[in-house]
Amino acid sequence: MPRKGHYVLHTFGSDLKRQVHVHFIVSAGGLKLSGKAERFTRYIKRKAKNGRIKKKKVTVLVNKPNWVHWSFFPHKVLRKRYQNLLIEHLKERIQKELRSDAPDPDLMVFSEPSAMKGFFDDLKKEYKNGFYVHISKERKDLQMTVGYIGRYARRPPLSEVRIKNYTGEWITFEYKDYRNGGGKVLHTLKTIDFIGRLIRHIPPHYFNVIRHFGILASRVKKKYKGIADCLLEPPPEVDEAPTWRERQTAF
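Request: output the structure for the sequence above.
Response:
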């Protein structure tokens, strides 16, 4: 079931420190193309007496392309799945780097298989419930969602309005301290240190911080997106923005 989706990479936290995290925007469901009877596992919200999430086998008969709406994501399962996939990917990348002609010196500690196994085993013990994943509710307002994502996805690490004071040598900016309830806090740095914090979040040339996957991936978008658009409700029509002259004579 190919799904629609985008992801956005952010490397900064509110205080400009390095805090790499990824935002995923995914569709509440996916496109069914097969005409066969397909049997898959669906997770049910209500829990059994033993506290585990109940599972139910669901059979779907599809005679033509169909959009299957699915707004529930099993949070606990997703956390563990994300953790396992990320760790496996890191292991592969580390091993590939160690086999290269000029491996990164910082990764040489993993040249012993026992060292790598011990490191990731300890990581799993530290995060026994999986890595942190936040899932927001399904969004219904298309225009508001697109506007919010458009502003948030490519926003800079710091907006000018958060800079409260600048003396030439020192700079004071405001950020939200989420560790203490999200209250606003003022932080002062030397200008050179502030610049250092800021520029390390500039991505390398040609590095894509926004990527598309599923039926929005470049290699299949032309083939599948048209089918999905026909099956889904059309977005509401939006009037074109008035010109400058029209705004001046509107009243």
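Helices lie at 75-98, 113-126, 142-153, 191-199, 221-231, 244-248.
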